[in-house]
Amino acid sequence: MIDQASKTLKDVFGFNEFRQSQKAIIGNVLHKKNTLAIMPTGGGKSLCYQIPALLFDGLTVIISPLISLMQDQVRQLHALNIPACVLNSSLSKLEYQDNLQAIGEQRCKLVFLAPETALQSNVVALLKSVTIACIAIDEAHCISEWGHDFRPEYRQLNLLLEQFPSAVCVALTATATPRVRADIKRQLHIPDNSEFIASFDRPNLYLEVLPKDNPYQQCTSFIKLHPEQSGIIYCLSRKQVDELSAKLSADGYSVVAYHAGLSSARRNEAQERFIRDDVHIVVATIAFGMGINKPDVRYVLHYDLPKNIEGYYQQIGRAGRDGLSADCLLLFGYGDTGKVRYFIDQISDDQERRIATGHLNQMLALAETDTCRRLPLLQYFAEAPQSENCAKCDNCCNESKQKSDLTVPAQKFLSCVYRTGERFGASHIIDVLRGSSAEKILQNQHNLLSTYNIGNEYSKKQWMVLSRQLLQKGLLSQDEQFGGLRLTKQAADVLKGNAPFFALLQQATVSSKISSTPAQPGDPALVQILKTERKRIADADNIPPYAVFADRTLNEMAHYFPRSSQSLLKIHGVGQAKLDTYGDIFLQLINDYCQQNNLQEMTNDQAPSKTVKASSHTSPKTSAKTLEIINAFEEGNDIEALAIQHKVKANTINKHLYDYVLAGNCLNQPERLLLTTKLNKTETDKALNAFQQHGAARLKPVFDALNAQITYDQLHLLRVYFVQHKGI
Q1: What pLDDT score was predicted for residue 323?
Q2: Sheet with strand 84-87: strands edge to edge
Q3: Contact 591, 563 (CB under 8 A)
Q4: Which residue, among 706, 726, 724, 725, has the nearest Cα to 715 in the 3D structure?
Q5: Helix or strand run (H / E) with residue 284
Q6: Which end of the chain, N or C, is less packed with Cβ atoms under 10 Å?
Q7: Cβ(64)–Cβ(70) under 8 Å?
Q8: How many angstroms from the chain centroid is the CA of residue 344?
């Protein structure tokens, strides 16, 4: 059946290939095996039940927590001519009855229900009157009381499954720790071998943290990097949302506010205006976003510190769901820590309060880390990072952040943890180091320890930063329930002086460069024509613009200039349903533009791929990122422009070029490399001869042989040319 699934993916949804884990998940569901799918936000979870729903005989029931999420999915399915409906309180009495009738007459393939609705006796009776093939539980982390968004009604969904023993169950979520995943599997009777975990990494998101200093100015500067692009700004309080949105509006920005204190009508209006591109910016509390499937959000700004990593991950996950680049900026001020602690102090249950404090400390570790931002993010979800340098965060891209040798302070802290019995939290350890006379210290006689009062060189805040970095770097572990710190094996080397400890004690005060999201390769004038027509159609059909075509689709149209239905079907996101509905309109616009500007359609060998196009000589070892950069380079982008576009150093682009030719591939215009060096022919020949003599594996021997007359930047480029033309 997986061949049928692949055909449906292409014919209905317009995609050539499944994304990470989709094929395995769909195959498991089609074989009627209960399945847990952990996939990142924007990773394509909905296809994991939509495609089986179209292939199964019978109805697929989708349990979803938010009305907006259900409505958005139904609208997108209708745009693909897929019969789907919803049962919730947003419907009029007549609409509700029409949908009940459609279900009873088996005219629907998918029905979306809130968990409360699904458990009602009359709804269960209706569902029992038809064949239920599949029950999909979206946002499945809501089942677990260990999740960040626990909902008691989700806990009862196992009762629904018992009513339909022949239906396969697929549970889906983007954020679930190992403990939450185990809870979901236990509740829904999902075996361990039917758990699929895609990478939590979103490599198209650029992550940055800046010290909060004049936040409004930082906010507007960030917005200006993304003119007329969709963005979300998250604030901690409703008051902050109201004040910030009002100020932005007064300064001429296209903005709406969203928080739980607004009426339902005003919230719905704000959300609709945003997803329909009537406004560019929404300023919101965490109440906004779970039901948003808008793929073209180009940036997320956290005006305040999130309470935990799960919330942060879910919120930044609303950016770049179309796979294109997006920017995520967190403004970090220690005053925000006090605000979050105030909320935590309101929790009456001691254990819940300790857990919330632990979550805050993990969030602070991410904000303060001097290493790749993705390390603590992925480690939180128990995923091992593929690299210590992601090339897509401020720490990996900014060389100006200088670490200090903090070996002695680290030894003091670790020694104090050991001498106090490895059962106290960071705050107590710091009080001992700073010579506090608190009752708890005197009771435990910690004032008699050799580590008492030896740490007054740092403030309590600085020691807390150090403690979180010791945790993040794996020298300490923390008891999840009580917060006590323990030494790891790694700590022994630092304590004995066998390994140094380098870290940042203070946040950098200068921003690393955030470049605006790069323009896609489409002809900008044609892209604008297509977007204008998309908006007109969307407004007329009462659907969001992205339900017509995604930005990526329009950009590919404006790059490849398809002139026929057959060519249009090669474009990402164009399936038969979209072709039948919108094909003639968009082909006419493209044809008119090409005639007016004397433009030709790309030839077949230049036709777009749904992922990354590569030459027939491309080595299977060549990474997708390298291919993306090679494609852009071959299209005429220079190295400096590519470095800005991908938010990396120029040498990173050079390395991708080198990896490409090293794998046996060939650049079409290698002479551009020589032009970029700005060396004359004599200098170039001399350098190439040095490579011939010393090889290309290391640059230093070549650099030395040339008496440092040619820079490393120039040698990087010459090496690529040499490897392609001369061999290693």
Answers
A1: 82
A2: 84-87, 110-113, 59-63, 132-137, 168-173, 35-38, 195-197
A3: yes
A4: 706
A5: strand 281-284
A6: C
A7: yes
A8: 27
pTM of the model: 0.67
C-alpha 485: how far from its chain's center?
A: 31
**Mean pLDDT along residues 425-439:** 94
- CATH 1.10.10.10 range(s) for the chain read 404-503
594-614 per-residue burial string, b: 16 or more CB within 10 A, e: under 16: beeeeeebbeeeeebebebbb
DSSP readout, 202-267? -TTEEEEEEE-SSHHHHHHHHHHTSTT-EEEEE-SSHHHHHHHHHHHHHTT--EEEE-TTS-HHHH
What is the sign, positive or negative, of the torsion defined by CA atoms of 49, 291, 296, 318? negative
Strand partners, 61: 111, 135
517 pLDDT more than 80: no
* Separation CA 615–CA 263 (nearest Å): 55
Give burial (CB, 10 Å; 0-12/13-18/19+) of 155.
middle
Domain span(s) for CATH 1.10.150.80 in the chain: 524-606
Residue type, 500: P
Question: What tokens were used for 277?
Answer: 């591109």
**Residue 368: its pLDDT value, please?**
81
The encoded tokens of residue 310 equal: 């799960």
Give buried/exposed letters for 159-174 (b at 16+ CB in 10 A, else e). ebbeebeebbbbbbbb
Q: What is the C-alpha to C-alpha distance for residues 244 and 47, in angstroms, rounded to an integer?
A: 37
Give the list of residues 6+ apart from residue 219 with CB closer than 8 angstroms, or none.
233, 244, 248, 301, 303, 331
Question: Is the distance from CB of 525 to CB of 270 less than 8 angstroms?
Answer: no
- What CATH number was assigned to the domain covering residues 2-197? 3.40.50.300
Helices then strands, counting H and E runs in the chain, come out as 33, 17
For the chain, residues classed under CATH 3.40.50.300 are 2-197, 205-397
CATH number of 404-503: 1.10.10.10
Determine contact, residues 54/82, Cβ cutoff 8 Å.
yes
What token pair was written down for 96? 């509700």
Query: What are the tokens at 146?
Result: 């260990």
396 in Cβ contact with 372 (< 8 Å)? yes
Fold (CATH) for 205-397: Rossmann fold (3.40.50)
pLDDT, tens only, 167-203: 999 999 887 778 888 889 988 989 999 999 888 888 8
Between CA 486 and CA 616 the distance in angstroms is: 54
Distance CA(594)–CA(662), nearest Å, equals 39
- What are the pLDDT digits (tens) for 680-716? 888 888 888 888 887 787 777 788 888 888 888 888 8
Phi, psi of 86 (to 5 degrees): -135, 150
Cβ atoms of residues 202 and 377 within 8 Å: no
CATH code for residues 524-606: 1.10.150.80
Quote the strand ranges of 576-688, DSSP E: none
CB burial of 553-564 (b: ≥16 within 10 Å; e: otherwise) equals bbbbbbbbbbbe
The DSSP string of 489-553 is HHHHHHHTTSS--EE-SS--SSPPP-PPPPPPSS-HHHHHHHHHHHHHHHHHHTS-GGGT--HHH
Identify the CATH class of 624-726: mainly alpha
CA gap 241, 234 in Å, rounded: 8
